[in-house]
Amino acid sequence: MSVNSPGPASAVEAERLRLFISSVTDYAIYTLSPEGIVTSWNAGAERFKGYREEEILGQHFSRFYTEEDRAAHRPARALAVARDVGRFEDEGWRVRKDGTRFWASVVLDPIRDQDGVLLGYAKITRDITARRKEQEALHASEERFRLLVQGVTDYAIYMLSPEGLVTNWNEGARRIKGYDSDDVVGTHFERFYTEDDRAAGLPMYALATARREGRFEREGWRVRKDGSRFWAHVVIDPITDSMGELIGYAKITRDVTERRTAEEALARTKEALFQSQKLESIGQLTGGIAHDFNNLLNVISNGLDILRSTGDRALQLKTIDSMARAASRGATLTQQLLTFARRQPFTPERVRVNRIIDSFEAVLRRAVKSTMRLEFDLAPGLPEIMADVPQLESAILNLVVNARDAIGDSGAIVISSSLVTLPDAGEHVCLSVRDNGCGMTPDVASRAVEPFFTTKEVGKGTGLGLSQVYGAVQQAKGELRIVSQPGQGTDIMLLFPTLSGAGSADNEAHGGPAEKVLVVDDQADVLDITAQLFTSLGYAVLSANNGSEALDILHRTPDLSILFSDVMMPGMTGLELAKSARALRPDLKIILSSGYLASILSEQKDEIGQFDFVAKPFRLSDIIKKLR
Question: What mean pLDDT is reported for the chain?
């Protein structure tokens, strides 16, 4: 609007307009300066907002806005829109002098002189809180009607008050729970729960969870009017109005008793099938062994008949050879049966756990995925124990494989050794395999060493691995302990009694200490044969598949004497490994080997020349020369 210079008549009209506006009480009508400063104030504004004229004149109109709106710069935007567009109209929360809020309808018009210069703004505000509540009540009623869907009979759909009282009831609720609407409306919904659930506070916990998290969903037993139970799938959603206030809950219940019964029957069938398959496997095992033994006994019994009936020396020798082979095969079958029964022949020897782990490390690393971490924490100076080395290696490998399966595609496995003292049992060497996987419940842990017990899917495990580990530890007069919690991983400890006077890992059982050599090669066959060559020379051999593994062993094996490494390896090359090892251990003897001698000499001749070198293929005498 524009303003002209008032004459006598227009001055009278302006005064009448001012008096009229100041007397209006249903609308807050006031003016603002171009900057938003309140310059006039009427009775309606005082009634709506609580400020007297002398309190508000000269103040910025943004004080009527909420903190959220001021932070979003809505007052300034309102002035800008009115100035640029010619009008601003909006609805929103406004704040009274006492801090209470009311829902306002706002119109803002710019005031300009005859030249178009902005003189200020005229602002009209109306309190429409009552109208808004009526609209929200209507909307809530329509929403309740939509949610209830009275024609649905497969679902119990009804609403609850914020306190949990039933406020309406659909046909599905009547069919499933047996109550008519008059029976339950106005009563608390906890009546549908079992006595145990009511005592545990589950009904109110459900409402609190729905309010806090926006949804509650669970299955459990519910009670019908006649006292019978059914298995229910329940969903509870909170319902709030546009102001965020809770007005109640929508509850949907479905009778899934038939589905649960079918699932339980299927689980029982699967378990019975699995047990049947186990029995079938045992039958196949015993049947096959019986068949093989019958064949072997046939060879021996017929051979004895031949020896009794012939004097042909050549035929006798041939028959004896056949009988010897049959006897050897029979011994192998017996070994397999004893292994299965945990009565396998035990061949103990004085061993050091750390040395077994070091020599077996390459095999263990091949057993886990590249995305997993396999770490070692071996305490130095551990006493010797009596153990069967092949059984101990098999036990460690079984535990690592179980840990690998428990941690999925990633995670960590830690193999550690330590010296512990058991009450009334003295010192023991503890070999531990720990993972950060899914863990076991107490019930599963208590049955873990039972033959054929497994938590893996059918066909994914025999249930014999941990059982055989237990058998090996028992034969070594040790103990197996399991520490595990669901979601917190598993720690399986093998405890072996120490040998009195055996000394530490730094002393050999016979003679002085054997020198340690670390053999590194990415080819498994080459690694194994090279390790055997050094073993034949009397060295204690550690092995690694790559440079990073080798460096890890170097860091934790201070008494290592020799490093023998292939040069051409993926990732860290043997030459890079040798340089790092020399920096770490200047006194370490380092021998490099490669079948690509020509290319290496042309490109890295000077660097290779810093170390001893053996060209592939090498012989035992070549290694001996370098060692001397």
Answer: 82
